[in-house]
Amino acid sequence: MEDVRKSYPGFVLRATLEVPLGQTLALLGPSGSGKSTLLRLVAGLETPEAGRITFGDTDLTPLPPERRGVGLVFQDYALFPHLTVYENIAFGLREGRWNEARIESRVREMLELTHLSPHARKRPEALSGGERQRVALARALAPEPRLLLLDEPLGALDLRLREELLLELRDILRRTTVTALVVTHDQAEAFLLADRVTVLRAGRVVQSGSPEGLYLRPQDVWTARFLGHRNVLSAPESRSLGLPEVPHLVPPAALEIGEGHPARVLERLFYGSRVGLWLEYRGLRLYWEGPDPGLKEGQATDLTIRFEHLLALNEEAA
Ligand SMILES: Nc1ncnc2c1ncn2[C@@H]1O[C@H](COP(=O)(O)OP(=O)(O)OP(=O)(O)O)[C@@H](O)[C@H]1O
């Protein structure tokens, strides 16, 4: 999409975005940043005030939703309650006047892809939340859409189910060649699902890149914090360490405990397979995480900051 604009009272979305063919792009942003609005514009459920939405050489902008060739998956599933799983998946194919033999073979293929074959004859009410979401996915993929749009697809599920379905969704997106745009406010979800991630803030694209590229090289303080970095030094803090007086990111790889300068454990967070430590170091509070080094709260240790790993950050996105 090219310089697409849409405004509501007190909100303006203005974005240019490209989803590489056959890949998954995650739109990541806090609540109210315009993620759903952007997705609805691509789906044709909203009309832009300016700009164009294209797929290859096709201009989708003037087309109604049903002629855009997009598949939609929302967090509330929106399945037909009176239809079986099989018929839910077949629905779009019947609408598209596929013949019965093709419908049967495509629905079987989708049931296998989403591991739903044993549930084909059930109605949605007899399924778990995760199974329902897989039906929604199978139904959206069945008509071979050119673009799959997913809006917080795991949003309605509890934490454990969310993790399970996340890996399954990742696997399904990788096994199909569909181009997908997924909206999420969860950084881990975006990183696991997508080939590329675009960060949205207040209706503007802040930064795009591969998950690794974004995480290791956020361009400003807000993006670094939003992506989950805990060690973002302010300009005066940077100066106190002898760095140029601009904010700096201290990525996880830059901290080593056990050697270097004196530090003290302020707080120890036990997560099971790893431990988080808030450390006091030269008047700063720094967070370290890794396998349990056996340090207790209040205990002294040593800490090295590998300055070559630090990254200067812009104060704030323009
Ligand atoms: N139909 C509408 N009428 C008026 N304002 C709207 C409408 N839809 C969205 N907005 C406003 O546009 C802004 C962006 O909303 P949007 O739902 O796109 O954000 P989001 O990033 O998807 O948020 P969330 O993660 O909470 O769903 C919000 O301030 C919202 O109140």
Automatic annotation (TrEMBL):
Residues 1-227 form the ABC transporter domain. This is ABC transporter related protein. SUPFAM superfamilies: P-loop containing nucleoside triphosphate hydrolases. Keywords: ATP-binding, Hydrolase, Nucleotide-binding, Transport. GO terms for biological process: quaternary ammonium group transport. SMART domains: AAA. Pfam families: ABC_tran. GO terms for molecular function: ATP binding; ATP hydrolysis activity. The keyword Hydrolase applies. Transmembrane segments: none annotated. InterPro entries: AAA+_ATPase, ABC_SmlMolc_Importer, ABC_transporter-like_ATP-bd, ABC_transporter-like_CS, P-loop_NTPase. The keyword Hydrolase applies. PROSITE patterns: ABC_TRANSPORTER_1, ABC_TRANSPORTER_2. Its EC number is 3.6.3.25.
